[in-house]
Design a protein that fits this description.
Radius of gyration: 52 Å
Shape: rod-shaped
CATH architecture of the largest domain: Up-down Bundle
Oligomer: single chain
Distance between the termini: 138 Å
Helix content: 40-55%
Number of strands: 27
CATH class of the largest domain: Mainly Alpha
Length: 884
Amino acid sequence: MGSDDEKEEQAEDRNPKKRNKATKKKVTRSQGHPRFKEVSLVSDWIQECPGIRVYSFGQPPLRSTTFCSSQCLNKCPTSDPLPILHKYYQTGDLMIAGIMSQVYTFINKITFKERPSAKLFDDPIHFVASWTYHGSMELLSGWGRLIPNYKCGVENSPVAVIGGPNSDICLHMATVLSIYKMPQFIYGSSPMLSNHIQEEFFHRMFPDVAHQYNGILQLLLHFSWMWIGVVTLSDDNGERFVQNVLPMFAGRGICCDYTETFPKLTFSGESMEMVEDGSKTISVIMGSTANVVVVIGEIQTMMVLGIIPNLAETMNMPVEIKAKVWIMTAQMDFTSFSFQRNWDIRFLHGAISFAVHSANHLGFQKFLQKRNPVTEREDGFIRTFWEEAFLCSFEKKDNDLCTGREKLETLPGSVFERSMTAHSYSIYNAVLAVAHALQNMHFSRFKHSVMMDELRGNRLDPQPWQLHHFLRGISFNSSAGEEVSFSQKGDLVTELDIINWITFPNDSFFRVKVGMMNPQAPPSRRLSIHDDTITWPIRFNQAQPLSLCNENCQLGYSRTKKEGKLPCCYDCIPCPEGKISDQKDMDDCLECSEDQYPNSDKDGCLPKDKTFLSYGEPLGISLATFAVCFSSITAAVLGIFVKHKATPIVKANNRNLTYALLLSLLLSFLCALLFIGQPNKLTCILRQTAFGMIFSVAISCILSKTAIVVLAFMATKPGSSMRKWLGKQLASSIVLSCSLIQATICSIWLATSPPFPDVDMHSMTEEIILECNEGSTLMFYCVLGFMGWLAIVSFTVAFLARKLPDSFNEAKFITFSMLVFCSVWLSFVPTYLSTKGKYMVAVEIFSILASSFGLLGCIFTPKCYVILLRPKLNSREQLIRIKN
């Protein structure tokens, strides 16, 4: 399983930027638990080097520790008794070192029940911290000798160390290197350090991880993926994501169906436990309704992810049916191992990953073409990689012999990726950052004439701690023309690319950039993505996948929470009357604005029509026609009475009151026309006040007529004192006093709170009512109340006088007319209050016309009948005869 990871580190070492002749680099790869040496293995060279002191802890075969005195360094062993198998060293004036996890080896679980042996190197995939400590100590030693802090001659310690891609490597090497204030460049996962002092020496070739998590959140929201699964590593970074980031997702409405951890890579003796844990995780992932899985991992996570299709098949869950959209973090990258060579990589098809922004380097392909184990013998990685990649061996005993002339171009993408990955680009920029920092420091020293001895000697001997000041503020352009700079916290200031993975049947794959996350942009523009360029997993038929707990609530519906379920699982209920939902999955339905109303589907608002009782509609035309007709009839009756003013029937009951009554009835009919048409300030003022005044005059005239009839009958009795009350003064006094009272009420109304044009937005669902606001409702009902009081008094007096002996006794007709009048207006009040809009106006017009016509018909129809059709009855003799 280790050889394919060796392939990755080989690709890193083939980077031409790491072979600068002016730089001495030492790359130490840690690969597993250190091999133990027995004391007897050291005893054969003790005699040759008397300066060696040998310390044994306990009994053999426990580990021995050796120290060489300066007098016999030339006789000390030239190799580390606990060797690191894969190294790459190139001489130069300055040294940049690397501690990188590129090779995994199999080892048996250490039980301390048997003698350690070389089998420790033969067998899981477990990186032991001691290897990183070992590698870090070796960087502080002379080349080929593990003697920390000892420098032979002019040999220098590294000026900086590049570590990665695992967070464990960075964490453990910081324990040693931070003591020496060594600049450390992290190009993969950043560890969570509890020691803030160690962070001062970290320079991350990675933007602040919070930007990436925010990018994942924006991506989920962009595609409306509100129901997801989360898989993390069982480490501090995974726990930090679950505790700190997932609550942020929940705050934006995104729910996790599950939060699983990948099976932890452990010793091969526990492989069955790993498979069992992995099967449980796969069962949860594949059984979930969440089509989107967020993977928070590191570079080795891709290897574990590749196991999923194979385990899924054994569990009768074909990947073609259960494919998911994997969203992967930038810390991950494609890796494979020898036992995965023939595995299906189609699980990656349609996946989306974040990556540190990178650019292609023009010389990288030429560099790769020159790499082979024949010309690069000093490279301690390439032979192992070559054997694993081309399935051959450099040992003559094997049938498939490696020639060293095999072509990297023939390898499938799942074995060797020939493009410069984001991780490789980060390492390249890390080397450039050190070079620029050294250059800036050199210029700074030269400018201030510091350390003149070094300058005269034409040699630069910087101390690692001196670089930090220059690294924090460094900014330069890479050979690709892109700016490289760091924040004050030591994070790389850069964008994140959004990558879409596309796989092919020949086990090759292609990364397509489909978007970008720019942390420096305004919040609304940080995420840019091209939906139409994304290739989705095959089972979605190139339609954007949905990832929801249940179907969206459609337009016209709102969500309601299910008891005991996550917020993303809900029921849908129709919007209540008067509300809409114009988007899917709305928590609450919305009310339309005042000038709009919901449509029938309750998914949108329609503009309300402005409405009023107009002359252009049938109702308005009908009422206006009746008003004109009734006013014409009233005018005709008035004309008849004027023409026959000398006849007894006209003179019988105060001719002037008759004229006043007819004239007020004529005006009342015409007054109805003020209520038709669009309201304006003048019509609103005249409507109710004119109506109140005119009707008050009409009723006061009727009251005067009735009172005169009663007083005239009483005055005919012998010795009655009522004769002095008879005359025109009484009638005029009644009419004027009643009219004056009503005029006073109307004046107060107009002075305090007059009617005005208004709009009613709420009474009608689909209409805006243009109306006259009464201003003061109290004053309006005072006007109506006074008219009602006059009507009741008139009706009472007329009712009492209905049986007086007079053939032309108007009391009978007045009684009927007032009965009609009161009936109309008593029914008006509830009808008026129960109607809305223009129909309220129509009810009032109808009441005016009906009550006025009732007075006209009941009082004047009998008289017109006599005047026009029975003129013989219109004589004094006939009147006296019938009266007697």
